[in-house]
Amino acid sequence: MKKVFVTGATGFIGASLARELMERNCEVRALVRPGSDRRNLAGLDIEFWEGDLQDEPSLEKGLAGCDTLFHAAADYRLWTRDPASMYAINVEGTRSILRTALKRGLSRVVYTSSVGTLGNPGDGTPGNEVTPVSFDDMVGHYKKSKFLAERVAESFIDQGLPLVIVNPSTPVGRLDIKPTPTGKIIVDFLNRKMPAYLDTGLNLIDVEDCAKGHVLAAIHGRIGEKYILGNENLTLKTIFTLLEDISGLPAPRVKLPYAPILIAAYINEGISKLTRREPLIPLAGVQMAGKLMFFDSSKAIRELGLPQHPVKEALEKAVAWFRAEGYAH
């Protein structure tokens, strides 16, 4: 890799990816929308290419001279006023950038999908890259759009695009500028807005390890293969216990029953459709919490050399960053 084109570089994973590429002496050209928030890239020697995922003539010019594409851009929200815009970015935007990469004859493409598109037994048995799954298993517009986008990516592999798919689990750490839904859980905990918890679980990974996994996929990944970029499977209760140890704040002790929270989420969703305001309890988030979202990253560890730094250290970085940036006290 000499000159790389990165979409989503202003975001959480993308900003760490850009830094990792620069550490490897790559020239980075980042697709950015006019007027976008570029704080995550401040001070970096990066070329900004202003454009849009659905403006193919601009994308074709932007990819000129690049040998590798990292397509990490996505609309990641658990609720949206306009689902069509999410599908336009996640599905049609993916189609546009990959079609352009195929025209340009790039030597390697890494597409950032999500573990949300993969099969998961939900009972604590970790899912992997080949666990059976269907569109009907997808909860919420984000997962549905990413599932469809992954099918788009696979169709370009069939057309000869040298593409590798990575499926990040739940990254945590620095530069979670929005923040992501998981980052918001950490921020709410730090601001004492998390009085109770649901009996669910996630696979966490340091966002910097996740970024390294992207680069390793470009170097070592087999074309047409998927790789789960994850690390440790933890219950939400355990995550809060770690945050208690890191922050000195008490973890919630009350476990909420699932059924009443699900009912409340449906009610909130109905109200949001009328008010067009984000619900206090996102339905998709509660529905996802009905499963233990545990995953097996052994393929990426074995084939890519995916690093596995302790998740507690990633949470320490996240807490310090959120506090330093004024998200939490």
Structural notes for this entry:
There is one protein chain. The protein has 329 residues and is α/β, with parallel strands linked by helices. It has a domain at 3-178 and 204-232 and 293-310: NAD(P)-binding Rossmann-like Domain (Rossmann fold), CATH 3.40.50. 43% of the residues lie in helices and 16% in strands. The protein is built from eleven helices and twelve strands. It has helices at residues 12-23, 56-63, 83-104, 140-158, 181-190, 207-220, 236-247, 258-275, 283-289, 298-304, 311-324; strands spanning 3-7, 27-32, 47-50, 68-71, 108-112, 163-168, 170-172, 196-198, 201-206, 226-229, 232-235, 254-256. Strands 3-2-1-4-5-6-10 form a seven-stranded parallel beta sheet, with helices on both faces. Helix 1 (12-23) packs across helix 6 (207-220), helix 3 (83-104) runs parallel beside helix 4 (140-158) and helix 7 crosses helix 11. The N and C termini lie far apart (41 Å). The model has no long low-confidence stretch (mean pLDDT 93).
List strands and helices in order, with pairings.
Layout: E1 3-7, H1 12-23, E2 27-32, E3 47-50, H2 56-63, E4 68-71, H3 83-104, E5 108-112, H4 140-158, E6 163-168, E7 170-172, H5 181-190, E8 196-198, E9 201-206, H6 207-220, E10 226-229, E11 232-235, H7 236-247, E12 254-256, H8 258-275, H9 283-289, H10 298-304, H11 311-324
Parallel strand pairs: 1-2, 1-4, 2-3, 4-5, 5-6, 6-10, 7-9, 8-12
Antiparallel strand pairs: 9-11
Helix pairs in contact: 1-6, 2-3, 3-4, 7-11
